[in-house]
Amino acid sequence: MPQRELLRRAEDELQKLRRMVANTVAFIHDQAYDETARRALAQALGLPEPNQ
């Protein structure tokens, strides 16, 4: 497989991961959801915990 194609696939996968992290962080900081669950998720993923 050409190196250019491999790089493109890697960039596509990285973009997917960035979207997933952004969505997860948005969930963690959305006060509409249970704070205990949001805090536990943040701790499990090593992300900043939600604000009170």
Please name the defining characteristics of this protein.
2 helices; mainly alpha; 52 residues; single chain; 0% strand; elongated
Explain how this protein is built.
This protein has one domain. The protein is 71% helix and 0% strand. The chain has two helices and no strands. The longest helix is centred in the N-terminal third of the chain and has 26 residues, at 3-28. The termini are far apart.
Estimated structural class: mainly alpha
Q: Fraction of residues in helices? A: over 70%
Uncertain ranges? none
Distance between the termini: 50 Å
Whole-angstrom Rg: 15 Å
- The total number of structural domains is 1
Question: How many individual helices?
Answer: 2
The number of distinct β-strands equals: 0
Strand content: under 5%
What integer is the average pLDDT?
A: 95
User: The biggest beta sheet, please?
Assistant: none
Shape: elongated
Order of helices and strands: HH
Task: Please outline what is shown here.
With 52 residues, the chain is an all-alpha fold. It has helices at 3-28, 35-45.
Annotate the secondary structure layout.
Blueprint: H1 3-28, H2 35-45
